[in-house]
């Protein structure tokens, strides 16, 4: 899988320059690999240049409703590419300063974080991971956590989100362009003009931190499920971007 993506990326990076800043966070999709794997891999390939000690994967809860933020308190995360060690000591630090809990049901079937782990294992094999899943939570509360996590230069943050769901291709592009514009302009307020994303809370929280901290953003790729299926009637949008 990764070999195929990397052959395609070689052509991409021959046409586009790498961002001129060190990656601190990436925004990536979480659909099936055939649909969004290429888009995600572009971001992970760039993220690997940062050589972080720790990768913190943050995604929305799709299958279990809860209020707040959950941190997975396990010893390792199993992937088809091999296990990833979870940084349990760092989790204790997070719990000490922030109102987070461990909600096992939030992590049991959560694909927004799960699909990221093989990418982490392949591109950042020496890193430890922390898995964070959020439910119903104020974006400002999540932003405070993200701000603190980004202050640690050993961390790379992964913000997991897909974009609009099940519109026609034309309508999806209109709605998704709102999300892309907000990322490019580093303005969370622009998201409220019609951006639809399952990870909207995480995206808004990250952009709020980007605005406060004066960080840079660069959108790497945008496409929809129609690129894989040819079905233009009910598509899902995918974006990847890098923050530094």
List keywords for this structure.
single chain; 244 residues; alpha/beta; Protocatechuate 4,5-dioxygenase, Chain B; eight-stranded mixed beta sheet; two-stranded antiparallel sheet; 10 strands; globular
Layout of SSEs?
Layout lengths: L1 H14 L9 E4 L4 H15 L6 E7 L8 E3 L4 E2 L6 E2 L2 H10 L6 H5 L2 H4 L2 H7 L4 E7 L4 H13 L3 E6 L4 E3 L1 H17 L14 H14 L3 E8 L1 H4 L5 E9 L1
Helix pairs in contact: 1-2, 7-9
Helix content: 40-55%
- How far is the N terminus from the C terminus? 28 Å
Instruction: Classify the beta-strand content into a percent band.
Output: 15-25%
**Major beta sheet, specifics?**
8 strands, mixed
Summed up, the helix count is 10
CATH class: Alpha Beta
Annotated CATH homologous superfamily: LigB-like
What does this molecule look like?
- The protein has about 240 residues and is an alpha/beta fold.
- The chain has one domain (about 20-244): LigB-like (Protocatechuate 4,5-dioxygenase, Chain B, 3-Layer(aba) Sandwich).
- Helix content is about 40%, strand content about 20%.
- It has ten helices and ten strands.
- The protein has helices at about 1-15, 35-45, 90-95, 105-110, 110-115, 115-125, 140-150, 170-185, 200-215, 225-230, and strands spanning about 25-30, 55-60, 70, 75, 85, 130-135, 155-160, 165, 215-225, 235-244.
- The strands form two sheets. Strands 1, 2, 3, 6, 7, 8, 9 and 10 form an eight-stranded mixed beta sheet that branches. Strands 4-5 form a two-stranded antiparallel sheet.
- Strand 4 and strand 5 form a beta hairpin.
- Helix 1 (about 1-15) packs across helix 2 and helix 7 crosses helix 9 (about 200-215).
């Amino acid at each position: 899988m990764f070999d195929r993506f990397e052959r395609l990326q070689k052509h991409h990076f021959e046409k586009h320059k790498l961002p001129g800043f060190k990656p601190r966070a990436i925004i990536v999709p979480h659909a099936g690999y055939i649909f969004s794997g290429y888009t995600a891999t572009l971001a992970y390939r760039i993220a690997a240049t940062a050589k972080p000690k720790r990768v913190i994967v943050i995604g929305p809860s799709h299958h279990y409703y809860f209020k707040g933020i959950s941190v997975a308190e396990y010893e390792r995360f199993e992937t088809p590419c091999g296990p990833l060690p979870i940084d349990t000591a760092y989790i204790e630090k997070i719990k000490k300063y922030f109102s987070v809990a461990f909600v096992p049901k939030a992590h049991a079937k959560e694909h927004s974080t799960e699909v990221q782990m093989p990418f982490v294992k392949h591109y950042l094999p020496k890193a430890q991971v922390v898995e964070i899943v959020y439910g119903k939570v104020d974006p400002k509360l999540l932003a405070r956590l993200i701000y603190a996590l980004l202050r640690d230069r050993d961390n790379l943050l992964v913000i997991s989100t897909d974009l609009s769901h099940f519109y026609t291709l034309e309508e999806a592009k209109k709605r998704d362009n709102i999300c892309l514009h907000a990322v490019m302009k580093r303005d969370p307020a622009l998201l409220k003009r019609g951006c639809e994303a399952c990870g909207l809370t995480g995206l808004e929280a990250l952009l709020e931190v980007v605005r406060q901290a004066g960080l840079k953003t660069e959108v790497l790729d945008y496409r929809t499920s129609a690129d894989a299926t040819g079905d233009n009637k009910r598509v899902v949008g995918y974006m990847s971007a890098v923050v530094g």
